[in-house]
UniProtKB/TrEMBL annotation:
Organism: Franzmannia pantelleriensis
UniProt domain Acetyl-CoA dehydrogenase-like C-terminal: residue ranges: 467-590
Biological role stated in the UniProt entry: Involved in the assimilation of dimethylsulphoniopropionate (DMSP), an important compound in the fixation of carbon in marine phytoplankton, by mediating the conversion of 3-(methylthio)propanoyl-CoA (MMPA-CoA) to 3-(methylthio)acryloyl-CoA (MTA-CoA).
Protein name: 3-methylmercaptopropionyl-CoA dehydrogenase
Domain Acyl-CoA oxidase/dehydrogenase middle: 163-271
UniProt keyword annotations, A-Z: FAD, Flavoprotein, Oxidoreductase
Residue ranges of every copy of the Acyl-CoA dehydrogenase/oxidase N-terminal domain listed in the record: 80-157
Acyl-CoA dehydrogenase/oxidase C-terminal domain span: 282-450
A Pfam family hit: Acyl-CoA_dh_N
UniProt similarity note: Belongs to the acyl-CoA dehydrogenase family.
Reaction it catalyzes: 3-(methylsulfanyl)propanoyl-CoA + oxidized [electron-transfer flavoprotein] + H(+) = 3-(methylsulfanyl)acryloyl-CoA + reduced [electron-transfer flavoprotein]
EC number(s) per entry: 1.3.99.41
Cofactor(s) annotated in UniProt: FAD
Length: 601
């Protein structure tokens, strides 16, 4: 069975040494509660819970899957008990607002725990994971009554949440949705329609499920401007706020899917189900975006979690598995062969995983600080800056970390050779589980359009400049530091190139809008590599300064990994830049009718 140790030392490096989280927490209102001791205790307990409770259920959950019986869905064995422990441990309320029963700790702390949960049991993690987004949407857009009725239950974790957007004919293009909301005399709405692919849509972990559903009012404008958001509980709360009458929402079937088998992906039928409007009529998409932004970063963290899990197991295997001798001669002459970790190509795979896991952790925590500032920052200018950066980085966190997460889990299989393909080692499960992260919450293609189109070009590049200026300042400050020259020189060059590439696409897009779509995914990947290069340079600076201390091996490895990232992964920017610049001509030339096959499909 795969093992997992929460990367507590690396978390300390990133949180305390790179980003001064103790200072950051102290600057937030109520941040005193997140004292270093409390943070350390929470992380250790989270590490224990994920390793001892969630990890043992990961493979069994994958093999067993969920079961639909008479409309009820049973999660795999042990999932319910693990969820009870999670609720009893107070985990759901960790970073929720005290006025709704939360502990008021910073959001970033919840995000760190999320990584551990995703690393040990991605499928299980989606049951509580969606509740955070639902709670956030209600907190921002719900009425006082809705907050009192639903939010406190979601925060306690006794009820879970879902997000119901997708329908059979519409996923990306929600303007096409058909689910209807008809006003009723009691001020509510009858919701009728079918939603598909609803994660945790039905299950036996919690006593009630709060669906947040997108639907159209009878007089709604066409397209995405006519979408409203409704809260639709599985059981209608009674006068005391407890689950009462069963609502008209049921699970029609469960999807059979490639991965995350332990999570129930449901077809949900709404049959004149009682719903209540959240926010203003026809403004549902904006309300849902509150939920989707939280969820997008959450999916990026899923990419990070599976990367770390795959890396740790591949590393252990590579130390143990004996095959062939090192090219330079036996490294373990007393054994029948050398462990495969001596082979450069195996090291290439392990270091790719390590560089993405540790770099991804830096990116998540860097972004997590912005989430805290946006929510609780005291200074308006700081909040605005954090909001801008968060907007820019969210599609990068979501799409880049899931793209490289999929690559990293695949490399994990490769390190195991044929054994990686065999179920019992758990490495192929990580690939299957990772695959969905590139799809849901907006595919990589859609994140890329969001980044290049909405965030960068629509702001005339101003959003990007906020970030590139920060990188520029860092490069300037370290320009005369010989220990960092190998990082700062290429970083400064790439940072300048990032702006030039953006201008180039922007100019082309003025002639032909399709150029944005043609460049977008390569632009996103380029942006991801440069973002990680900035963070790896900062890590290298930190490591260089600590090299002479007691933990030389840790810091030396950090520096070596930074070097690997710069020498072996960052050159991928050359290909992405070339593809961004190539334009859309070759993509659009072939006719859509037969795609040059000579026959129609
Ligand atoms: C396991 C699982 C769990 C899910 N959980 C949920 C959930 O809890 N709630 C929920 O509402 N949904 C959920 N989804 C749905 C998921 O979010 C959608 O599948 C996803 O958004 C893509 O929509 P689609 O499948 O309809 O693909 P489509 O929208 O049909 O897209 C197909 C392809 O076309 C591309 N494409 C589409 N439009 C454009 C464009 N304008 N430019 C460039 N490329 C484009 C896409 O990138 C994609 O590659 C889940 C899906 C799965 C498989």
């Amino acid at each position: 069975m795969p093992d997992y140790q929460a990367p507590l030392r690396d978390l300390r490096f990133v949180m305390d040494e790179m980003f001064d989280f103790p200072g950051h927490y102290a600057s937030l209102p109520g941040g005193d509660d997140a004292s270093p001791d409390v943070v350390a205790a929470i992380l250790e307990e989270g590490a224990r819970f994920s390793r001892e409770v969630l990890l043992p259920l990961n493979q069994s959950g994958d093999q067993e899957g969920c079961l639909l019986e008479g409309g009820d869905v049973k999660a795999p064995k042990g999932f319910k008990q693990a969820y009870q422990q999670y609720v009893e441990g107070g985990w759901p309320s960790l970073s929720a607002e005290p006025e709704f029963g939360g502990q008021g700790l910073p959001h970033s702390l919840g995000m760190v725990l999320s990584e551990m949960i995703c690393a040990t049991n991605l499928a299980w993690g989606m049951y509580p994971g969606l509740s955070h987004g639902a709670a956030d949407a209600l907190r921002h857009h719900g009425s006082d009554e809705q907050k009192a009725t639903y939010l406190t239950k979601l925060v306690e974790g006794v009820w879970t949440g879902t997000m119901c957007l997708t329908e059979p004919h519409c996923g990306t293009d929600l303007g096409l949705l058909k689910t209807r909301a008809i006003p009723t005399d009691d001020g509510g709405y009858d919701i009728t329609g079918t939603k598909i692919f609803i994660s945790a849509g039905e299950h036996d972990l919690a006593e009630n499920i709060v669906h947040l559903v997108l639907a159209k009012l009878p007089d709604a404008p066409e397209g995405s401007k006519g979408i409203s958001l409704f809260v639709v509980p599985k059981f209608l709360p009674d006068a005391d706020g407890n689950p009462g009458e069963r609502n008209g929402v049921t699970c029609g079937s469960l999807e059979h899917k490639m991965g995350i088998h332990g999570n129930a992906t449901c077809v949900m039928n709404f049959d004149a189900a009682k719903g209540y409007l959240v926010g203003a009529p026809n403004k549902g998409l904006a309300c849902m975006f509150t939920m989707m932004n939280v969820a997008r970063i959450g999916v990026g963290i899923q990419g990070l979690g599976v990367t770390e899990a795959s890396f740790q197991n591949a590393l252990a295997y590579a130390r143990d598995r004996l095959q062939m001798r090192a090219l330079s001669g036996p490294q373990a002459p007393e054994k029948v062969a050398d462990p495969i970790i001596v082979h450069p190509d195996v090291r290439r795979m392990l270091l790719t995983q390590k560089a993405f896991a540790e770099g991804g952790r830096m990116l998540v925590l860097y972004t997590a600080q912005m989430v805290d500032v946006v929510e609780h920052g005291q200074d308006a200018a700081e909040r605005e800056r954090a909001e801008t950066l968060l907007g820019l980085l969210t599609p990068i966190v979501k799409a880049f970390l899931t793209e490289v997460g999929f690559e990293a889990t695949n490399e994990g299989v490769q390190v195991f050779g044929g054994h990686g393909f065999i179920q019992e080692w758990g490495m192929e499960q990580l690939v299957r589980d990772a695959r969905i992260t590139r799809l849901y919450e907006g595919t990589t293609g859609i994140q890329a359009l969001d980044l290049l189109g909405r965030k960068v070009l629509m702001s005339q590049g101003e959003t990007l400049k906020v970030f590139t200026k920060e990188i520029h300042k860092f490069c300037q400050a370290e320009a005369d530091n010989p220990a960092l020259a190998e990082f700062i020189k290429p970083l400064a060059k790439l940072n300048a190139e990032w702006g030039e590439l953006t201008m180039g696409v922007g100019m082309k897009a003025m002639q032909d809008r399709e150029e944005v779509g043609a460049a977008s995914v390569d632009y996103l990947m380029y942006s991801g590599y440069v973002t990680l290069a900035y963070l790896w340079a900062r890590a290298a600076k930190q490591a260089t300064e600590a090299l002479e201390g007691d933990e030389r091996a840790f810091y030396q490895a950090k520096l070596d990994t930074a070097r690997f990232y710069y020498q072996r992964l960052l050159p991928r920017t050359r290909a992405h830049a070339a593809m961004v610049q190539a334009g859309g001509g070759s993509l659009m030339a072939i006719s859509a009718e037969d795609f040059g096959l000579g026959f129609e499909i």
